[in-house]
Amino acid sequence: MNVNRNHFISAREREAMISLTAITFIEDNALLSTAQIDDAKKSLQALFLRASGEETMLRKLIEVLKATRHIQNSFANISGTLAGVSRCIAVMEEKLADLRAELALKPVTPEANTAFVGPFLSFSQEFVFMTTSFAESLTQYLAAREQEARAQSMHRIALDARERLRRRLSGRLAEVRDEAEARIKDELVTSFDYGQAETILEDARFESRAMERNVRDNLDEIQSMCRRAMNPALRDRIAVIDSGVDIFTRFADALPTYPPLESLKSAVLELFKLYQHAYGMFQLDFQKLSHALETMIDNADVYFQAKQEDHDLSHKRDKLRKIEGLIPFLERAARLAADQEMDAYSAFSRQLSAAISERRALWSHITEDLLRAKVQAEAEISTRL
């Protein structure tokens, strides 16, 4: 590109300069994978060589960044969901341990223990066990969905390989001399690494569905226990609970009969609230996890790279914040690239710097890095022959 300060700069060249600025910023901050960056560079090279045509480089970059932002958010949601479930269980265990310690210091009468305290502690221990099983089921479900994602990726590769083989055989090798040769060619196409990949994918999907059922069964069991730990007036009408296991009613009946239980009332009600809250949050967590896993299934390669790299979550958040700033900047810069009023290189360069430096812009936290990337991009563009 022949650049001088009075040079007419076309929309294609403006797009190329913005794209090179973005790619430089992306590469410096490792916001995309090496393969994605290489692909972007190849597209940029094609843009430089293209004499005319529709400018698509910026749109492609923006879409790749949005997809990366989406998968990074999903990865964060998956990690956060599992951590949140573990924290919830830890809080319940801590509160239950505090109650046991209080009872050790101030034991209740045998009658009060039989009427409520003993059954309540057994109920609480069972509830914590159920929530722990739920957490384990979630982890197994995640592992199964990850295996499904790997199998789906391999299935897609095998299917693509079979299609390429079919096209190759339908070309120069398409002319067969007899029926046996035609049969061999068909068998080669249909069996090439595809059948095994398809079987593995079906098995992985079956395992995922089984793990999902386990999670739902755990949730149903926790819900059933929560019904026993809530005010009967607020229960579902269809819920029929035997009086022997109705722990909330046992507490309400025991309180006036055994006055020493009054000192435990606050701790017991706090645990009842925690149990109800846990079930509600577990439901939401499962929905959130399932949604995030759908994104993972569709973007398996990016997900597993995100999982393998950047174990430091603060580093992940920093990357995500930079991506979230770069996307609106590129959308703003794309409008500059299409502006037919700016026909001089110098005018466009000033406008681009002004856009980068806009006060209170959504990308203001990456302004300095973007300006450095622009300087580097201009240095490269200005020395092209």
SSE diagram, text form:
Layout: H1 11-28, H2 34-49, H3 57-105, H4 110-169, H5 179-191, H6 195-228, H7 247-257, H8 265-298, H9 300-308, H10 313-337, H11 345-356, H12 367-382
What does this structure look like?
- The protein is mainly α.
- It has a domain of 203 residues.
- It has twelve helices and no strands.
- Helix 3 packs across helix 9 and helix 4 runs parallel beside helix 8.
- 27% of the residues are buried.
Intertermini distance:
6 Å
Mean pLDDT across every amino acid position: 81
Indicate the proportion of strand residues.
under 5%
Main pleated sheet? none
**H/E topology pattern:** HHHHHHHHHHHH
Q: Ranges with pLDDT <50 over ≥5 residues?
A: 1-5, 51-55
Binned, the helix content reads over 70%
User: What overall form do the CA principal axes indicate?
Assistant: elongated
Q: What's the number of helices?
A: 12
Tally the beta strands: 0
Helix-strand category: mainly alpha
Radius of gyration: 31 Å
